[in-house]
Amino acid sequence: MDKLVVKNKGFTLVEIIIAMAVIAILISAILPAFQGMQQEGDLSKANSELLTLKTAVISYKRHNGSYPTNITTDLSGATPKLINEILKDPFLTDALTTPNTYGYITGTDASFGEYFVIYTKSVDTVVDTAWSATNDQVEIAAGKDDLAVSNAPVVKL
What b/e string do you get for 8-43 counting C-beta neighbours within 10 Å, with b at 16 or more? Predict the structure, then answer.
Protein backbone atom coordinates (compact mmCIF):
# COMPACT_ATOMS: atom_id res chain seq x y z
CA MET A 1 0.00 0.00 0.00
CA ASP A 2 1.25 3.42 -0.94
CA LYS A 3 1.68 5.95 1.80
CA LEU A 4 0.27 9.37 1.26
CA VAL A 5 2.96 12.06 1.59
CA VAL A 6 1.65 15.37 2.86
CA LYS A 7 3.81 18.44 2.22
CA ASN A 8 3.40 21.44 4.49
CA LYS A 9 3.54 24.68 2.57
CA GLY A 10 3.74 26.98 5.65
CA PHE A 11 6.66 28.55 7.46
CA THR A 12 8.41 27.07 10.42
CA LEU A 13 8.68 28.97 13.66
CA VAL A 14 12.43 29.43 13.13
CA GLU A 15 11.87 30.97 9.69
CA ILE A 16 9.31 33.41 11.09
CA ILE A 17 11.64 34.45 13.93
CA ILE A 18 14.51 35.02 11.50
CA ALA A 19 12.31 37.13 9.21
CA MET A 20 11.13 39.21 12.17
CA ALA A 21 14.72 39.74 13.32
CA VAL A 22 15.76 40.96 9.85
CA ILE A 23 12.79 43.36 9.74
CA ALA A 24 13.64 44.70 13.22
CA ILE A 25 17.27 45.32 12.20
CA LEU A 26 16.15 47.18 9.06
CA ILE A 27 13.70 49.34 11.02
CA SER A 28 16.32 50.20 13.65
CA ALA A 29 18.72 51.29 10.88
CA ILE A 30 16.15 53.42 8.99
CA LEU A 31 14.28 55.07 11.90
CA PRO A 32 17.02 57.57 12.92
CA ALA A 33 17.19 58.87 9.36
CA PHE A 34 13.45 59.59 9.38
CA GLN A 35 13.69 61.36 12.75
CA GLY A 36 16.49 63.56 11.38
CA MET A 37 14.35 64.45 8.37
CA GLN A 38 11.44 65.35 10.67
CA GLN A 39 13.67 67.69 12.68
CA GLU A 40 14.96 69.35 9.51
CA GLY A 41 11.40 69.87 8.34
CA ASP A 42 10.40 71.36 11.70
CA LEU A 43 13.41 73.73 11.62
CA SER A 44 12.54 74.92 8.11
CA LYS A 45 8.90 75.46 9.11
CA ALA A 46 9.88 77.38 12.24
CA ASN A 47 12.36 79.56 10.36
CA SER A 48 9.77 80.46 7.74
CA GLU A 49 7.07 81.18 10.30
CA LEU A 50 9.41 83.33 12.40
CA LEU A 51 10.03 85.55 9.37
CA THR A 52 6.27 85.78 8.75
CA LEU A 53 5.67 86.75 12.38
CA LYS A 54 8.44 89.36 12.26
CA THR A 55 6.82 91.01 9.24
CA ALA A 56 3.41 90.89 10.92
CA VAL A 57 4.73 92.44 14.16
CA ILE A 58 6.40 95.29 12.26
CA SER A 59 3.21 95.88 10.30
CA TYR A 60 1.15 95.80 13.51
CA LYS A 61 3.34 98.51 15.02
CA ARG A 62 3.04 100.61 11.87
CA HIS A 63 -0.78 100.47 12.09
CA ASN A 64 -1.22 100.62 15.89
CA GLY A 65 1.76 102.60 17.19
CA SER A 66 3.01 99.85 19.51
CA TYR A 67 4.10 96.25 19.37
CA PRO A 68 1.43 93.62 20.03
CA THR A 69 1.19 92.28 23.56
CA ASN A 70 0.41 88.78 22.28
CA ILE A 71 1.49 87.51 18.85
CA THR A 72 -1.34 85.02 18.59
CA THR A 73 -4.51 86.91 19.42
CA ASP A 74 -3.33 90.40 18.47
CA LEU A 75 -1.98 89.42 15.04
CA SER A 76 -4.77 87.04 14.05
CA GLY A 77 -7.46 89.47 15.21
CA ALA A 78 -5.86 92.67 13.90
CA THR A 79 -7.42 95.01 11.36
CA PRO A 80 -6.13 94.77 8.73
CA LYS A 81 -5.72 91.02 9.22
CA LEU A 82 -1.98 90.25 9.51
CA ILE A 83 -2.04 86.46 9.83
CA ASN A 84 -4.94 84.15 9.00
CA GLU A 85 -4.36 81.67 11.79
CA ILE A 86 -2.23 81.15 14.86
CA LEU A 87 1.14 79.80 13.75
CA LYS A 88 2.00 76.76 15.83
CA ASP A 89 5.59 76.24 16.91
CA PRO A 90 6.68 72.64 16.18
CA PHE A 91 8.93 72.82 19.27
CA LEU A 92 6.17 74.03 21.67
CA THR A 93 8.24 76.96 22.95
CA ASP A 94 5.43 78.76 24.76
CA ALA A 95 3.25 75.74 25.51
CA LEU A 96 2.56 76.71 29.14
CA THR A 97 0.97 80.10 28.51
CA THR A 98 -0.36 79.97 24.96
CA PRO A 99 -0.36 76.37 23.68
CA ASN A 100 1.97 75.57 20.81
CA THR A 101 3.14 79.09 20.02
CA TYR A 102 6.46 80.79 19.51
CA GLY A 103 8.10 82.70 22.34
CA TYR A 104 7.65 86.47 22.24
CA ILE A 105 9.12 89.25 24.35
CA THR A 106 9.07 93.02 24.05
CA GLY A 107 10.77 95.71 26.00
CA THR A 108 12.39 99.10 25.97
CA ASP A 109 16.15 99.42 26.24
CA ALA A 110 17.66 102.74 27.38
CA SER A 111 20.02 102.98 24.40
CA PHE A 112 18.28 100.84 21.76
CA GLY A 113 14.67 101.83 22.35
CA GLU A 114 11.68 99.52 21.81
CA TYR A 115 12.52 95.99 20.77
CA PHE A 116 10.76 92.68 20.18
CA VAL A 117 12.07 89.13 19.97
CA ILE A 118 10.24 86.12 18.53
CA TYR A 119 11.99 82.81 19.12
CA THR A 120 11.75 79.04 19.20
CA LYS A 121 13.69 76.79 21.54
CA SER A 122 14.22 74.35 18.68
CA VAL A 123 15.40 70.75 18.86
CA ASP A 124 17.19 70.85 22.23
CA THR A 125 13.92 72.02 23.92
CA VAL A 126 15.70 74.64 26.07
CA VAL A 127 15.28 78.39 25.58
CA ASP A 128 18.74 79.89 25.10
CA THR A 129 17.68 83.27 23.65
CA ALA A 130 17.80 86.53 25.60
CA TRP A 131 18.00 90.30 25.15
CA SER A 132 21.44 91.75 26.00
CA ALA A 133 21.12 95.32 27.26
CA THR A 134 24.91 95.53 27.36
CA ASN A 135 25.25 94.88 23.61
CA ASP A 136 21.80 96.07 22.41
CA GLN A 137 21.16 92.77 20.67
CA VAL A 138 19.45 89.42 20.93
CA GLU A 139 21.89 86.70 21.96
CA ILE A 140 21.62 82.96 21.50
CA ALA A 141 23.93 81.03 23.83
CA ALA A 142 27.04 79.45 22.35
CA GLY A 143 26.48 76.08 20.73
CA LYS A 144 22.69 76.27 21.04
CA ASP A 145 20.18 75.78 18.24
CA ASP A 146 17.47 78.36 19.01
CA LEU A 147 16.05 80.36 16.12
CA ALA A 148 15.09 84.00 16.67
CA VAL A 149 14.03 87.13 14.79
CA SER A 150 13.91 90.68 16.08
CA ASN A 151 14.04 94.33 15.10
CA ALA A 152 17.49 94.27 16.72
CA PRO A 153 20.55 92.27 15.64
CA VAL A 154 20.38 88.53 16.48
CA VAL A 155 23.75 87.04 17.34
CA LYS A 156 24.72 83.42 18.00
CA LEU A 157 27.58 83.45 20.51
Answer: eeeeeeeeeeeeeeeeeeeeeeeeeeeeeeeeeebb
Mean pLDDT by 10 residues, the chain (157 residues): 66 90 90 81 93 95 92 84 87 75 92 95 89 94 93 94
Segment (H or E) for 115: strand 113-120
Contacts of 89 (CB under 8 A, 6+ apart): 46, 49, 100, 101, 102, 103, 120
Rg (CA), the chain: 26
Residue 156: exposure state from Cβ atoms within 10 A (0-12, 13-18, ≥19): middle
Question: Domain coordinates of the chain in residue numbers?
Answer: 13-156
